[in-house]
Design goal:
216 residues; Rossmann fold; alpha/beta; globular
Length: 216
């Protein structure tokens, strides 16, 4: 573990723990990483450190800080989406103000975090974003027209969190916006985080790093 847990605050003054990993090379774009429904844990420390090794200042905020775990020892049934968005936005601002950040902000996220990544470019002015198998993308398609900065969608071919018909709706909707690129992987939901498919993970991360490197 190269980073450490620090405390950030949202715009209402609520403190939340955040895993912060500094960039290899000393300074770079800020990257906010959105968690899946199982929360902040060593898996995400490793993800953050891997991203930091690429030259980014990385923060993984615990946007489940104000709820208890629920069904399946996860936050799926207890998470507060407005809190997740507020924490994402506040973390973007906190990173941007840090000396190790060059002033550019990328946002990425896995599972539930794929939704916050999507909305970071639609609503919060992120300079770039990548969404790994976001579970609510099919419910957010009215936001597609608001996206002006580059967004990559990493989509599992058959994602168990929504039917294939919803996947097709996502792919059709984002075709209308040249800022959005969608890639479909023959791999399961979680292929780059909790249910690793080595080849799909490597390809998706390569595409993510190529995009975020443009912020350097």
């Amino acid at each position: 573990m190269n980073g450490k847990i620090v405390e950030f605050k949202d715009s209402n003054g609520n403190a939340y723990p955040t895993y912060l990993s500094h960039p290899k090379g000393g300074r770079g774009p800020g990257v906010v990483v959105g968690l899946d429904i199982h929360g902040l844990r060593p898996l995400y420390h490793g993800i953050a450190d891997h991203f930091a090794d690429q030259g980014y200042l990385v923060a993984v905020p615990d946007y489940f800080f104000d709820v208890e775990r629920g069904e399946g020892d996860s936050f799926r049934t207890t998470m507060k989406f407005p809190t997740m968005l507020e924490v994402t936005k506040s973390t973007m601002a906190a990173l941007k103000a840090m000396p190790d950040c060059n002033g550019k902000i990328g946002v990425t996220g896995f599972c539930a975090g794929g939704n916050t990544a999507f909305l970071s470019v639609a609503r919060f002015g992120a300079d770039a974003a990548t969404s790994y198998y976001g579970t609510r993308l099919h419910t957010l398609l009215d936001e597609v027209g608001n996206i002006k900065q580059p967004l990559i969608l990493h989509i599992a071919e058959h994602d168990q969190t929504y039917p294939d018909e919803e996947r097709d709706k996502i792919l059709e909707a984002v075709k209308k916006n040249p800022a959005i690129t969608a890639h479909v992987y023959k791999a399961p939901h979680g292929f780059a985080s909790s249910s690793i498919d080595v080849d799909a993970q490597a390809l998706a991360h390569k595409r993510t790093f190529e995009l975020f490197d443009t912020l350097k």
